[in-house]
Specification:
- This protein is mostly beta strands.
- The protein has one domain: Distorted Sandwich (Beta-galactosidase, Chain A, domain 5).
- It contains 3 helices and 24 strands.
- It has helices spanning about 125-130, 255-260, 310-320; strands at about 5-10, 20-25, 30-35, 40, 45, 55, 75-80, 100, 115-120, 135-145, 150-155, 165-175, 185, 190-195, 200-205, 210, 215-220, 225-230, 235-245, 245-250, 270-285, 290-300, 305, 310.
- A 9-stranded antiparallel sheet has the order 8-9-10-11-22-19-18-13-16.
- Strand 3 (about 30-35) and strand 4 form a beta hairpin.
Length: about 325
């Protein structure tokens, strides 16, 4: 029986920090820590009568909470850069910060559900020492009435020096999968990508889908607004939609690198895959007073796979989400 949508603030037993639990009327839920290392599930969504689909965003069993280091897994907010270069830390500083609840957010230009939490991050004195730009970062985490997870980021240049700034951005999303060798990503075929394992060489995807047999660390360029991640064993398809984010990051560390990561289990690479919307190839430039918006939406549908194509019924359901 359907209930009502709610947002509850509770204490996280593992970290001692406040977290927010969003519950959609039909049973879906998502947790967001106040220290926004991650947006984490599982959440349960009931798309169709008598069908429950478990949608997991992966959190490593070896993950530890040691501020200011981000927790491994979930959905990490990578700003003002993805990767490691210059004086900034790996994947930028936003994922390692304490965010505040935005009690009076301005109207959002895109439709979201009533089941949401608004968070805000502003420049600190420590940030300005390594990245001398004044910014305001507003993030809305919301669940749609169907249980889809929607992340909407708004970044504004609030500097008074008249200077623009540039940044790159990614939602580094850890999906939980049954077996990485049984997963394929569709929608990225024929695209150019930057291969981070080959000094960011520009290559072209040759397969009819992205499949996984070894370590992968790629940025697919000018990707379509919707891609799908098909988990054959669980007969489940994740649908990722994006706005304002032209690129897509795909990453799996595979065995050798997994063993070298202290906050990641030796075999956990077999049950995870990072796929996230991003803006990497062409940095975003904001002049003072300008705002940028980037949105990622994740949903899931039961699916089967046959002869290299999604079933027509699954495609129909995807278009109606």
């Amino acid at each position: 029986m359907a209930g009502t949508a709610s947002v509850e603030r509770v204490k996280d037993r593992a970290t001692g920090l406040d977290k927010f639990v969003l519950r959609e009327a039909r049973g879906s839920s998502v947790e967001s820590s106040a220290r926004l290392d991650r947006v984490c599930f599982p959440f349960i969504r009931s798309n169709f009568p008598s069908i429950l689909v478990i949608v997991d965003v992966n959190i490593s069993f070896q993950a530890t909470f040691k501020p200011p280091k981000a927790i491994r897994g979930g959905i990490q907010i990578c700003f003002p850069q993805l990767g490691s270069h210059g004086v900034l830390e790996q994947h930028g500083f936003a994922r390692n910060q304490f965010w505040s609840v935005d009690e009076s957010p301005p109207p959002f230009p895109v439709a979201t559900s009533n089941c949401h939490i608004d968070l805000i991050l502003k420049s600190s004195q420590e940030d300005l020492k390594i990245w001398p730009h004044s910014y305001e970062f507003r993030l809305r985490v919301s669940l749609s009435p169907r249980g889809d997870l929607i992340l909407t980021s708004r970044i504004t240049n609030i500097s008074s020096d008249g200077k623009p700034f540039q940044f790159t951005f990614a939602y580094h999303t850890y999906f939980s999968v049954s077996d990485i060798s049984e997963v394929r990503v569709e929608g990225l075929e024929t695209l150019d990508y930057l291969d981070n394992l080959q000094s960011r060489n520009r290559c072209t995807e040759q397969g009819d889908a992205v499949v996984f047999e070894s370590e992968v660390d790629k940025v697919y360029l000018s990707a379509p607004s919707k891609i799908v991640i098909i988990d054959h064993e669980k007969k489940r398809t994740f649908v990722l939609r994006k706005e304002g984010l032209p690129d897509v990051v795909v990453w799996n560390p595979w065995g050798k690198k997994a063993k070298a990561m202290p906050d990641f289990g030796d075999d956990e690479y077999k049950n995870m895959l990072c796929v996230g919307a991003a803006a990497i190839e062409k940095p975003i430039t904001l002049r003072p007073g300008e705002e940028w918006l980037g949105k990622q939406e994740i949903s899931a549908v039961p699916s089967s796979y046959s002869s290299g194509q999604l079933d027509p019924e699954v495609i129909r359901r995807m278009h109606t989400i």
